[in-house]
Sequence to fold (396 residues):
Amino acid sequence: MEKTDTELSVTAILEHLMSVAAWSLTDGTVYSAHSGFKYTTPSSCSNMKVSLGDKTITPGTIPFYYTFYYYPEEGKHLTVSYDEAGVSKSFDVQLGTESGKLSFLEEGSFKDGGARELSVGDLFYGDGSILPVETVREMSQAPSGVAGVVFQTDLSRISDKEKSVLAGAHALVLSARMPSYKGNTSMKWFDDYPEGKDDGNRNESVEDPDYPGMYLPFITDTKDYMHSYELNRADINGYWNNVVIRTRRAADMEKGWYPAFSAVVAFGDQVPAPSYSTGWYLPSAGQLMDAFANLGKVDFDDHIRDFNGNGDFLVDASYCADMIKFMDSYLEKIPSEERDLFSGATGALWSSSHSWTYFSTGDISYAARLVSFYNDFSVISYSTFGVSETRAVLAF
Fold:
């Protein structure tokens, strides 16, 4: 079945008059959101290999499709081989001869599930497939290959940076596993005294003239905890925070000075993300708050209290008593080797959001915002030299 797609055809034309061949391969159920986003449940089709003559091809991905960009030439085709229910199968993808065109081919015995919107609790797989939360509830165990769980579908809570880089976004995903650094899931945000007299007390909110516009804003009002809450809740810029650190601190990351950020980068090698996503990043304070609100059912409305001054705040345990149980409920059907339950964690997570507090001497101590869920739910400024765990987030 062939059709054209204006947006991708234009992309192909911009790629020096290349063309695009795209194919689907699934025996899962295919759903369509009202936005036109199409996705499929995990497939039993496995061991896909793609070749062009005697060359092995690694295809790209867009939602529901694999892709191959090429310069048009007569008589060329891809051969796609795979296993389905223990049977080896293959098909050819013909490569067109006209520049700037996109061709589609749909293979596999997939089922049309009709209209369905993405939902909080859907399981997101490394190959881009999605398992509806209502289907997961009926299973004793979800199929393997899980990357994370959808925690945000409200587009107003997805940053403009993500929408721009993705040419539109659909949801945010929280990783099912915790990233690790040097074999440990607990790590520093920044290494204290990385070398010489550098005490690591770095103000990431100061703009570097070599990297204009790239800095992390303070999101703490040390004199007004409610203002801090508003600043933290509004900070949904985890993706950009990571771009800033990975760019302006690239050399220092290579030296191991930013463990929490490096751990999330390495996590992308352990749990690959589809090429049509942002890739994994360390979430902001507001994004972690959204995850606990939507998955953990933490009730922020009218329940924010001061916590030890300096702009830190909390939600009393009486308004989030079962948050860990709720968080775990979205992970418990995932194969044990692919998830880390919140009940087995230390109870604190680094955000990528920048902050400040005071040393005992009264001097300013630059910090990061830390989310704690040990008993109540709190968001505090914590020394970047301290140790905490992380979760990764991606947008697609």
Q: What stands out?
A: DSSP finds nine helices and 23 strands in the chain.
